[in-house]
Design goal:
The complex is a heterodimer of chains A (130) and B (108). Chain A is an alpha+beta fold. Chain A is 27% helix and 30% strand. Chain A has a 4-stranded antiparallel sheet, with helices on one face. Chain A is elongated and about 65 Å long. In chain A, 26% of the residues are buried. The mean pLDDT of chain A is 86. By secondary structure, chain B is an alpha+beta fold. Chain B is globular and about 45 Å long. The relative contact order of chain B is 0.32. The chains are: A alpha+beta (130), B alpha+beta (108). At the A-B interface, β2, β4 and β5 of A face β3, α2 and β5 of B. β2 of chain A pairs antiparallel with β3 of chain B.
Chain lengths: 130, 108
């Protein structure tokens, strides 16, 4: 069977951020402002020592939003920091985030970018000169 | 405990309503059962502002390392990930995973 090629992206990382419900959009906006291309959000129920009572007696929402953003390893620290600050994750009870390194990712890649990658590879391999 | 030491987690973000077909094909053609689907919302840079937020289905598959690349490519083609606005997928290494088998149905 004749199948098309799979174009995969290497050197990518997944940033997962678990926050109180309603905070995700602020975090995604911060990530996109700094270069993230997309995000996925799903809902979950969280637990923790402050699940019922937060700082100054303000209840911490038990319902959570889980934000997943895949970025290149080159920009992962920058996006991670922007998300951390946007979500006020230095405040107790606001949430948690972590980075998972991925082996590969795939999505639609615009033809212009594909051509540029192929061109760069040919230059790198000495097939063509710049 | 019968653990699989070398396994991968393949995650696929698909438009709403697209995952069931892929799940069925993975089950019927590839014999996989460790597949889950959850719902969420997604945004992509390739979409216009009106389309910016869309309901998505998040498909996760746990598969042994020996078959991971084959399954990744299979999902890529079946879900047409390479086409515009068809979704996104990624693969990561798991430290360990348990075996998941469905019980046999006893016919009386």
């Amino acid at each position: 069977m004749n199948r098309r090629e799979v174009t995969v992206l290497k050197d990518v990382a997944l940033i997962t951020c678990i926050v109180q419900r309603g905070i995700a959009d602020t975090i995604i906006e911060a990530a996109r402002d700094i270069g993230a291309q997309g995000a996925t959000v799903n809902y979950a129920r969280g637990m923790g020592i402050r699940e019922r009572l937060g700082i100054l007696g303000v209840a911490v929402e038990v319902e959570k939003e889980v934000v997943n953003i895949v970025v290149s390893t080159e920009q992962v620290e920058r996006v991670f920091e922007a998300m951390y600050l946007a979500g006020d994750l230095d405040t107790p009870g606001m949430g948690i985030m972590y980075i998972t390194h991925l082996e590969k990712a795939a999505t639609y890649i615009p033809p212009a970018i594909l051509e540029k990658i192929e061109h760069d590879q040919k230059v790198e391999n000495g097939i063509i000169k710049e | 405990m019968n653990n699989i030491l070398e396994s991968k987690l393949i995650t696929c973000i698909l438009p709403k309503g697209k995952s069931l077909e892929v799940v069925n094909k993975l089950h019927d053609e590839k014999g996989l059962v460790a597949i889950n689907v959850s719902n969420g919302r997604g945004s992509s840079a390739h979409k216009t502002k009106i389309q910016a937020e869309a309901e998505v289905e998040i498909l996760t598959v746990v598969v042994g390392s020996d078959r991971a690349d084959e399954i990744f490519d299979y999902i890529y083609h079946e879900a047409e990930i390479g086409e515009i606005s068809r979704g996104f997928m990624y693969q990561g290494r798991l430290t360990s995973s348990t075996m998941f088998v469905l019980p046999e149905i006893i016919h009386e």
